[in-house]
Design goal:
seven-stranded parallel β-sheet, 24% helix, alpha/beta, 26 strands, 14 helices, globular, 580 residues
C-alpha cells in the first residue's frame, strides 16, 4: 500500500469513528433569510490535501461522499477538485458532519440573483445616475445604426473594421437562459446546458427557457450579429431595423442556465455551471483554447465553497468576469472574490451609475445604463402615444404595463386640490370619476408611479400617460401589474397636451424583440466581450496577463488611478490591442 492510500485509509477510519462524536468545525448555520436556498441545503468543504494524483483525488472524493452518507446526509453535487460538495442535511446529520475531523466548514447554499432590471424609475427611489462630481466633460456616447452607445464607448466599429471580433475565444455566460431562435444569434450558439433542476422543460435553447429575459439580453450585448435583426415591427423607437450589434460577434457563445424563471439560482448550481464552462477548455478535455466566463449575477454573502470554485477555474486558465451588484453598496459575490474580475456600471456620460456597487474589488467599469439589447422574441415592449393630433416621441412603457391599445378622451387626473390639483394625483384615496373609461393624464411628482397608476385604475381609467417634470424620457417602474397600458412621455408633450384638453388620444404598448435594461448585469457582458476580443488578438497571454493588460489600458475615470467607484476605469479593448 502506498503512503497516500495508507493516509486515506486512516482518515476513513477516523471518519467512521467520528459519526458518534462532535468536535468544533467552522460552520455557518442557515436561517430563514431569503438568501438561503433551503433550510436543509448546505455546502460542505473538506480539508484539502494539497497536490495529489488523479487516482488519489478519486479515492478522496469517494471517502468524502461516504462521510456524508455516514452522517445521514444526501449529496446533490460533488466537486472533487476543490474537496467540496452540496448536500441536504437534517439537524442530526448536520451535527454529525460537523463532528467529522475531515470537515473544514459547513455553510448554507446561497441564492444568487440576476443584476439587471428594465430601465425606469419608481420616483420613490430613483435610479437616475449621478451627474455631479463623477461625470466627465466627455460628450455623451450615442448609438448609430446597429451600433449601440455601449459599442461606441468601447470603439467596436473600429475593432470590427480591423478584424477584431473575438474569433477563436469562447464566452460562456451563466444566466437565465437564451432564446436561441432570436435572429440576432443566427442559430450560432455553440453550447447550452441547464443547471436548474427544479424546473422542467428548460433544457432546449430553441424552446422556452429564458422566462425572465435577462440571459437573452446579456447574450445580445456579447454576440448579436450585424444585419440580423428582427425588422422594424420588433424594434424600439429609434432603433435600426437590423437591431443591435454585439461587442464580440466572432466568439463561440455558450450558455449555462444557472438562474431560473425568477432570475435566481443557487451557489451549487452556479458552481456546476462554471465548471461546465471551464470544461470547454482544451486543457480540460474540451475544444476551446480560451474561455471567458461572464456572470451577470450576485448576492451579498460570501461562500468559502464559491471562492474555492473560482480559484480553481482561474488556475485552470479561465477568465471569470462578474457584476459588482446594484445596491449602491459593497461589492457583491462572486465579483468580490479573488480570481474574479469585478465590473461596475457607467452611463453614456461616463458617470458612475448610482446603483453600481463600490469598493476595492471593482476592477473595471463598462456601459450599464439604458442598454438596448435582444430579449426573447415578442417579449419586449414597444410604446407609442398620441394626443391632440400629435404623435409623441421617446415614449416608454411602464415595466408592468399591460400590452394593450386604447383610444379615447384624454382627461387631466388632478381635481383641483393639493397634489392632486397639481395633476400629480397623489394620495392613496385620490379619485376622479371623470377618468372612468378614459385616458388619465398625470404629472410626475412627489409620490410613486405606483400610487398614481393605482389611483387612476381605481377611478376607472382605461390607459395612463405620465408626463415627466424634467427634461428627458420617462421610464416608470411599478409594484403591481396592471391590465391597462401605462406609458411615460416627455414633459413638453404632456404640458402641451394639457393646453389642448378636451381632446382625444391613443396609448399603445405592444410586443417587441428588444428592450432597454439597466444594471451591472449589462456592464458585465460589455467587459466580458471586450476581454474576449483582446484575448483573441493576443492569444499568448495567460489569464493573469490579460487582466493586467486590461487594467493598465483602461480609460481612467474619477479619482486619478484605481478607485473604489471605477476601479482602473472604462475597459478599452482597442488600446489594449493597439496601444492607441
Amino acid at each position: 500500500m502506498t503512503r497516500t492510500r495508507a493516509l486515506l485509509a486512516a482518515t476513513l477510519a477516523l471518519t467512521l469513528a467520528a459519526c458518534g462524536q462532535q468536535s468544533p468545525v467552522n460552520t455557518t448555520a442557515p436561517t430563514t433569510n431569503k438568501d438561503v436556498v433551503a433550510s436543509d441545503a448546505y455546502l460542505v468543504g473538506f480539508k484539502e490535501a494539497g497536490q495529489i494524483s488523479a487516482q488519489s483525488l478519486q479515492q478522496q472524493a469517494a471517502m468524502q461522499a461516504q462521510a456524508i452518507t455516514a452522517a445521514g446526509g444526501v449529496m446533490t453535487s460533488q466537486w472533487a477538485d476543490i474537496s467540496a460538495a452540496a448536500v441536504r442535511l437534517s439537524p442530526a446529520a448536520l451535527a454529525k458532519l460537523q463532528g467529522n475531523p475531515m470537515v473544514d466548514y459547513v455553510e448554507p447554499d446561497l441564492v444568487r440573483t440576476a443584476q439587471g432590471f428594465k430601465s425606469g424609475s419608481s420616483d420613490a427611489g430613483s435610479r437616475k445616475t449621478n451627474f455631479t462630481a463623477q461625470a466627465l466633460t466627455t460628450p455623451p456616447y450615442t448609438g448609430s445604426g446597429e451600433t449601440t452607445w455601449g459599442d461606441n464607448a468601447l470603439k467596436v466599429e473600429t475593432l470590427r473594421t480591423s478584424g477584431y471580433t473575438g474569433a477563436g475565444v469562447a464566452v460562456c455566460i451563466g444566466d437565465t437562459g437564451i432564446d436561441g431562435n432570436h435572429p440576432e444569434f443566427q442559430k450560432k450558439l455553440k453550447g447550452f446546458k441547464n443547471f436548474i433542476t427544479t424546473e422542467t422543460n428548460r433544457n432546449d435553447p430553441y424552446q422556452l427557457n429564458d422566462v425572465s429575459h435577462h440571459g437573452t439580453h446579456v447574450s445580445g450585448t456579447v454576440f448579436a450579429q450585424y444585419g440580423a435583426g428582427t425588422g422594424g415591427s420588433g424594434t424600439l423607437e429609434g432603433m435600426d431595423v437590423n437591431g443591435v450589434g454585439g461587442v464580440a460577434t466572432g466568439v463561440n457563445l455558450y450558455m449555462a442556465r444557472v438562474l431560473g424563471d425568477t432570475g435566481s439560482g443557487s451557489s451549487s448550481g452556479i458552481i456546476n455551471g462554471v465548471n461546465w464552462c471551464v470544461a470547454q477548455l482544451k486543457s480540460q478535455g474540451g475544444t476551446e483554447a480560451k474561455v471567458v466566463i461572464s456572470l451577470s449575477l450576485g448576492g451579498g454573502r460570501a461562500s468559502k465553497t464559491e471562492q474555492r470554485a473560482y480559484t480553481s477555474a482561474w488556475k485552470k486558465g479561465a477568465f471569470t468576469v462578474a457584476a459588482t451588484g446594484n445596491d449602491g453598496a459593497a461589492v457583491s459575490y462572486p465579483a468580490a472574490y479573488d480570481n474574479v474580475v469585478g465590473i461596475g456600471a457607467i452611463d453614456n456620460t461616463e458617470a458612475k451609475a448610482d446603483f453600481s456597487n463600490f469598493g476595492t474589488q471593482v476592477d473595471l467599469v463598462a456601459p450599464g445604463v439604458d442598454v438596448i439589447s435582444s430579449v426573447p422574441v415578442g417579449q419586449g415592449t414597444r410604446a407609442t402615444a398620441s394626443g391632440g393630433g400629435v404623435n409623441f416621441t421617446q415614449v416608454m412603457s411602464a415595466d408592468k404595463s399591460a400590452k394593450a391599445t386604447f383610444s379615447g378622451n384624454v382627461v387631466k387626473a388632478g381635481d383641483g386640490t393639493g397634489t392632486a390639483g397639481a395633476n400629480e394625483f397623489c394620495g392613496t384615496t385620490s379619485r376622479n370619476s371623470a377618468l372612468s373609461g378614459n385616458i388619465a393624464l398625470i404629472s410626475r411628482g412627489t409620490c410613486s408611479f405606483e400610487e398614481k397608476v393605482a389611483n387612476a385604475v381605481a377611478s376607472g381609467a382605461k390607459a395612463v400617460m405620465i408626463y415627466n417634470n424634467t427634461a428627458g424620457a420617462l421610464g416608470t417602474s411599478l409594484t403591481n401589474s396592471y391590465t391597462i397600458p401605462v406609458v411615460g412621455i416627455l414633459q413638453a408633450d404632456g404640458q402641451g397636451l394639457l393646453t389642448k384638453l378636451p381632446t382625444t388620444g391613443t396609448v399603445a404598448v405592444t410586443g417587441a424583440d428588444y428592450d432597454m435594461y439597466n444594471g451591472t448585469s449589462m456592464a458585465t457582458p460589455h467587459a466580458s466581450a471586450a476581454a474576449a476580443v483582446v484575448w483573441a488578438a493576443k492569444p499568448g497571454l495567460t489569464n493573469a496577463q490579460l487582466l493586467s493588460l486590461l487594467t493598465s489600458t483602461a480609460k481612467d475615470l474619477g479619482t486619478a488611478g484605481k478607485d473604489n467607484n471605477f476601479g482602473y476605469g472604462l475597459v478599452n479593448p482597442l488600446k489594449a490591442i493597439t496601444g492607441q
